[in-house]
Amino acid sequence: MKHYARSRALCDWDDFGRWQRQAVAALADPDAAALSPFHLLSLPGITAGEQRRCAQRWMAGRLEASAVDRARLHDEFDLALRPARAGPIRLGYLSADFQEHATALLMVELLEAHDRARFELHAYSYGADEGRGMRQRLQARFEAFTDIRPLDDLAVARRIHADGIDILIDLKGYTAATRTAVLTYRPAPVQVSFLGYPGTSGGDFCDYLISDAFVTPAAAAGDYSEALARMPHSYQPRGRHGTIGPAPTRASVGLPAEGLVLCCFNQAWKFTPDVFDIWCLVLALTPGSVLWLLGDRQAEGQLRQEALRRGVDPNRLVFAEDRPQVEHLGRLQLADLVLDTLPYNAHTTASDALWAGVPVLTCAGDTFAARVAGSLLHAAGLPELVTDSLQAYADLALALAGDPPRLGRLRQRLAEQRLSCALFDVPAYARDLEALYEAMWQRHGAGLAPVALGAGLQRTTSPPSN
């Protein structure tokens, strides 16, 4: 697995079948080096249970050196001795992504919709401000915004504890630049994983995982070390007020004047040979169609070569340049159908497409990361675009590619319900999330252990605001 990440980024698939076998063997060998939990999310054939074992081993190996400090702080942070405090529940959001980042783009309207009378928001930020305005918008919503970059994890834990945070919410998990290890010091009475990492922490330091009934069915609870706190629709927030730029001309973005535009703006490391086979089959059987992909200089040449190997003219792959979010949403309107990846689905990329009015076709797998697009499509009112096998995915992709009127009807339906469907109803989403937070806090106050929450939540969507 030494060269796995680089090979996936390059779409160099020569060893693809071997990677899965090596990962399974490493997980079964107690003497093998721990594997990155994040890398396993995009590897076919890995179960959610195996992802849990991987995460548990990964974090355990990184905590040995700090075991003494953590034991001391657990005593220092004896939460049972913390005096009761009146007033709103204090939420602490921990992230490196309080900037123009996918997490912030998803969360900003949610944070603005939180009930200030019932919740007091604190941010603990360890990412730089890229200067594009999102940081300032977010700062305005927090009661306190603390830059923790100069502090080590021990000092961060002490700061969070001193601030009296009731519920600490980690927005990173085992993604790049993570500081999830802060949670292992237990600085807050209740600790939650939310949004940034589509999997389990594998440890006993995170009490709840925010999910929904589609991404984590009840039968999958044993694959997660956290209690599942399930939203009634999708776990992912997405607001109604993200500006969509004007649609550019096809020529200006490198698309042909005519022909079906199939699209996947997922990062190239999510691509797999099996799914790419299907994309090329659809291209081959749909004359004049193109596949519109996110530009990636290190992978473009390899992807063109893979298309050629499958009998497809490499020039039918069109690569899009990186653009600001408003322009990106505007150009998405030129796509006819988004084709998703498996086992790591489109996440923010899928809700971007749906907000821009473009249908998304997905194949749902067995893990959290493999079921996100399905969750979004159910919340958007398009469940018929969720398939459960690659064969069904291929069949539906071919059917839709060959039936433009059917695609048009799907697009029209999405346009008609976009402002009323659950996926983009952030005010109602905020109330549901707050109900979960309050249930967590009530259980803690009653001395009860974390337990699955959310099964009884019911709501209707709220009307769109003017």
TrEMBL record:
GO terms, molecular function: transferase activity
Top-rank taxon, per record: Bacteria
Pfam families registered for this protein in UniProt: Glyco_transf_41 (PF13844)
Pathway involvement of the protein, from the record: Protein modification; protein glycosylation
Domain O-GlcNAc transferase C-terminal, first and last residues per copy: 10-235, 249-433
Organism: Sphaerotilus hippei
Gene3D superfamilies in the cross-refs: 3.40.50.11380, Glycogen Phosphorylase B (3.40.50.2000)
Keyword Ribosomal protein: no
Key words, A-Z: Repeat, TPR repeat, Transferase
Protein's name in the database: Glycosyl transferase family 41
